[in-house]
Structures
1.
Amino acid sequence: MASVLSYESLVHAVAGAVGSMTAMTVFFPLDTARLRLQVDEKRKSKTTHMVLLEIIKEEGLLAPYRGWFPVISSLCCSNFVYFYTFNSLKAVWVKGQHSTTGKDLVVGFVAGVVNVLLTTPLWVVNTRLKLQGAKFRNEDIVPTNYNGVIDAFHQIIRDEGILALWNGTFPSLLLVFNPAIQFMFYEGLKRQLLKKRMKLSSLDVFVIGAIAKAIATTVTYPLQTVQSILRFGHHRLNPENRTLGSLRNILYLLHQRVRRFGIMGLYKGLEAKLLQTVLTAALMFLVYEKLTAATFTVMGLKSARKR
């Protein structure tokens, strides 16, 4: 119990939350472009910069930052839960011993599931707020009128039922495998490089980490698209059996996307997502590592537990 409620887990959680908030704020417009491309299927602009220019021209200079506060709030809560759960579980399981790849994968998966179940309502609300007021090309989208986070929660529960707050949960749970795919490719690329040299440089680590993240994102991107559509919840599509984003509904949305736009329709917004994912992850971990190290130094701890 002491390991679960330790200051060390709290430091990791706060540092992870601050790192993610900083990175997302810097690269927030990329996330805006990605979400528009995923949800508004009939938008003609295909590239990230063209979508952003289009949004600024039609909706104003600050439009790429619409919904910043609810997204940052959700991200803060989400990463706090993830990092706290991950480090607490690891402290309980490892207990001072050296961790293994298998243990890290299991702990990461469990932390991801806990995070999804606890924070999905926040992501549903921030997706709605982020897209509110947007000029859509798709006539299947029903406009919303929320007056903030609390009002959005109230309207969703009143009009759609409390379970609507967990729209997109099933694909979110499937997307917990994203880090596992990333880790698998990262370790494989690292082993290949180590056959040719004694040790890896910081640049080597950054590049193979970026490649691994890009592969994981590309493989799981169709599910991320479905997740965004389910969270938004305002398409006039398949109104039956939408609870929690069932497997039936996921397959229906994937089929509709392919039928209307071809296989590449599943990857609309991928360019923006890759830019955002790689850059945000790099900056997040930079802030996270620096803040964690600085905090442990201030607390007078000689070294933090190896992750």
2.
Amino acid sequence: MAYPQAFSFTHRLDTGTNAPPLPADATPTEAEREVWLQVDVVLKDARGILDELQAYKGAGQEIREAIQNPNDDVLQDQAWAAVVPLVGKLKKFYQFSQRLEASLSSLLGALTSVTYEDPTQHLEREQALAKQFAEILHFTLRFDELKMTNPAIQNDFSYYRRTLSRMRINNLPAEGENEVNNELANRISLFYADATPMLKTLSDGTTKFVSENKNVPIENTTDCLSTMASVCKVMLETPEYRSRFTNEETVSFCLRVMVGVIILYDYVHPVGAFAKSSKIDMKGCIKVLKDQPPGSVDGLLNALRYTTKHLNDESTNKTIKIMLQ
């Protein structure tokens, strides 16, 4: 299988920037353009979302002071004033996850259609869309890495909901309540309660895509995902290709994409990514992760350990379980 050609953007991303731009040879064809333009708008916003999440500091200090001094109205007001705009950001991130899921669904529709005979042809001839698919996965894993290391997110939202509830009981005007009504607050709360909320959104979205598109053989989706995983693995483990990655961010990009497609595959394939019949070389993929500098891929290994569906199945090879311990 001509992996380097099928996914050639993976070794041409080395630009020295955080978000690799679209390479010249992955310009969308006329057939791809409509979907590409829709997804491009979302991906442009994705960069700002990551910047905002990285800069998210939380209102821990204000909340602590308010809790320690429950009768001090000034401190209560200060905590509320600090939390309300942060909740606006958390709402924005959650709403972005819905847009991302819709984009993923559009890309899956294009990359699994019966236009071409196999997934390799799709990836070779629709490189612009394959690149966008990879960028969505890169964003998703990066978002979840940042979220996992920021406990302020859940603390801020919990405080917001508790305070709002108390204000309602006391019939106090709750400025900012219009920002997040009760139903939306429940959905946002569930979203952030997950260790990897964006990945969960995409996994659910991929499962939904497969169940809603019965006319598309499930193999079209799973083969597309397994091919992308294999391409990333080959790019990372082959010295000839790896030597072209002068920028470490490109390596991170490929690693996140590889882990992302493995997790999606594990959700939609009837027996998952870890079974003997899986088209993904899981031992090879885990070895690639383990070969990275210590501590650099802990989040990705944890994603495989804790967010996959079939790792703990009896059918999973014991060696794979030991590798991920």
3.
Amino acid sequence: MKDPAHRCRDIERQAGYLQPEHCAPPPPRTLPDTMWFIRDGCGIACSIITWLLVFYAEFVVVFVMLLPSKSLAYSLVNGALFNGLAFLALASHFRAMCTDPGAVPKGNATKEFIESLQLKPGQVVYKCPKCCSIKPDRAHHCSVCKRCIRKMDHHCPWVNNCVGENNQKYFVLFTMYIALISLHALIMVAFHFMFCFEEDWTKCSTFSPPATVILLILLCFEGLLFLIFTSVMFGTQVHSICTDETGIEQLKKEERRWAKKTKWMNMKVVFGHPFSIAWLSPFAAPDHGKADPYQYVV
């Protein structure tokens, strides 16, 4: 029996329609240490803009607000905090952009591979007609990456990559750290405006008063916009992780065919086993422990 959710999937469910003879041999496997990078003009432009906006915030915070401050302790504490969070945000962005999100081998729907699965009567395999790959359950095809991605949540142009099984941790950290530096920048802008109103505007900044106001207003607008956007995205991602349902699965309302786990276990599947301070580090690859691999055959 086929339900509407199955009919809407981009797969062919019967082995007779797989047509392995139409698939070219898969390309040679890339080395494990080969960097993953999507050559998409829009994504590359958005990634560059993201870094430039962070550098702009860095410039305003350091040269407009902290260096002119009369309190050395205030400048050191806030400078270290903001620069630390900004560094973690950019590192998370880089890892999310250059980490394989969980791409299924392209072009593996060959006769030899299908025979190696040793299918039993009644077993079904999934084939993507777009990239000619036999793919595991919960994998979806990305038209930008031109690959099927395991546990794909969505394609994000701001990181020029899909958010999937292998890089969701870095994407969540990126949204969290961007939200934190945006909030921190807004708080410092508020304090700096109060300081400038109390003191002479010519003494509260090394720039002219009009330039100082323009720079602060632009930073305020940028911080407010990114605080709202990344906070919503962070909350959405955490909810998706806790419910173990990707954004695409929620959008398509796909039937749940995987084992239900606790919210804490779902968090450990993404961030690693067991809980540690490494959850907050973009340099620590998540250890998935004994997480069950996705199978090709159902």
